[in-house]
């Protein structure tokens, strides 16, 4: 059993069901409707205003572009300052945008934003599994273009955070039925040929082989029935 704290920032999305005249709000990934039942999805957006020294303008513009931002205005101010306005998806801002902004500007940039409604977006539900068992608490909604990168990053973090088990653990991420990322945690190896600091079986090769085969079968059984539990906080 492993206790892991995993938090995934969420924002409310909207979906227009097929044949309906009104949208529904998706506040939890578990309520994400099947794409075949939806005309389109919408994501919340913001109007962001960044003020930064001119020398950091390039890295900040690259950051906003990577976060699917659309530049709407730019104005040079006094004291070598520049004001840049962007329309950005809220989901890209709540994740770690502020940290990225401070890093790109050495801490000199400021950020202010206001809600700007919704816009259509190609989003998908990202699912996670441990040894084939779904972990609903880890599911999240992401833009389709970022799904694979996000899946790999979370799988890698899970591999580092989870304690190794006596059986191999497969960490997988999927969109629908397609696996798009995977990490494998190797099993903890216990030396069954040593007990109490002494070698078991002495020079009896047959007995040693039986012990190793028994261990191998035990690991196969644990992989079938073993569970990795996550404490979600």
TrEMBL record:
This is Elongation factor EFG domain-containing protein. It comes from the Eukaryota. Keywords: GTP-binding, Hydrolase, Nucleotide-binding. Residues 202-233 are annotated as: Disordered. The keyword Glycosyltransferase does not apply. It comes from Hemiselmis andersenii (Cryptophyte alga). The lineage of its organism: Eukaryota, Cryptophyceae, Cryptomonadales, Hemiselmidaceae, Hemiselmis. GO terms for molecular function: GTP binding; hydrolase activity; mitochondrial ribosome binding. GO terms for cellular component: mitochondrion.
């Amino acid at each position: 059993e492993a206790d892991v704290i995993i938090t995934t920032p969420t924002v409310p999305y909207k979906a227009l069901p097929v044949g309906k005249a009104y949208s529904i709000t998706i506040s939890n990934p578990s309520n994400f409707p099947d794409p075949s039942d939806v005309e389109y999805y919408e994501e919340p957006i913001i109007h962001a205003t960044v003020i930064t020294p001119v020398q950091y303008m390039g890295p900040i513009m690259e950051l906003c572009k990577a976060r699917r931002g659309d530049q709407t205005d730019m104005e040079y101010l006094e004291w070598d300052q520049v004001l840049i306005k962007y329309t950005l998806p809220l989901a890209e801002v709540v994740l770690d945008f502020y940290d990225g902004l401070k890093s790109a500007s050495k801490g000199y940039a400021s950020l202010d934003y206001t809600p700007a409604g919704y816009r259509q977006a190609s989003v998908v539900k990202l699912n996670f599994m441990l040894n084939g068992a779904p972990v609903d608490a880890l599911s999240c909604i992401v833009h389709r273009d970022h799904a694979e990168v996000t899946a790999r990053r979370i799988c890698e973090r899970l591999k580092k955070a989870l304690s190794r088990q006596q059986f191999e653990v497969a960490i997988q991420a999927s969109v629908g039925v397609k696996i798009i990322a995977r990490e494998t945690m190797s099993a903890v190896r216990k030396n069954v040929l040593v007990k109490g600091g002494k070698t078991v079986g002495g020079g009896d090769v047959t007995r040693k082989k039986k012990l190793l085969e028994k261990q191998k079968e035990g690991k196969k059984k644990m992989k079938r029935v073993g569970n990795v539990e996550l404490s979600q906080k």
